Amino acid sequence: MMIKIKAVEQKLMVGPKAGQYVYMLGAETYSSLVESKVIEEASLRSGIQKGALQAAFSAIGETIKAWATEGHSVPVPGLGTMRFSVNAKSVSDVNMVASSLITTRKIIFTPSTDVKKALKEAAISITCYDRNGNVVKRVNSSDSGGIEDPENPSGGEDAGAGDDLGQ
Hints:
Distance between the termini: 25 Å
Order of helices and strands: EEHHEEEHEE
Number of helices: 3
Strand order of the largest sheet: 2-1-6-7
Largest sheet: 4 strands, mixed
Structural class: alpha+beta
Number of domains: 2
């Protein structure tokens, strides 16, 4: 498994480095999978017929949705837990508290330790794009996913992981 990251050169508009160009990292979105593709793959991996699997996935999805919207923290087997949350404005007077203060209703997903471990161990490929959209560098990780030590800048170097643009 490899995670693709893009580093795009962008001009900062605010902060102490305003006006400077920096490389901003973000995940590359591969594509959105359709539900039928997920059901088909799960059927192949489990040996369960597609129809039965589709019915089970639908029932599990409805159950999770119902419980999450009732305020429960709902386990998603093998993946983690999800719960309902809100973003809201604050007020200093209790008489002003109302549902209109809610700006966003959202679901928070907390991955399981197994998912976190798999993500930490996944290889990373970074493609760097300049401000004109040209690829200027590619880097592939070969590390364990450890965080570099800011006190030891040499530990943060490419360390021979390499790229394919001769840089």
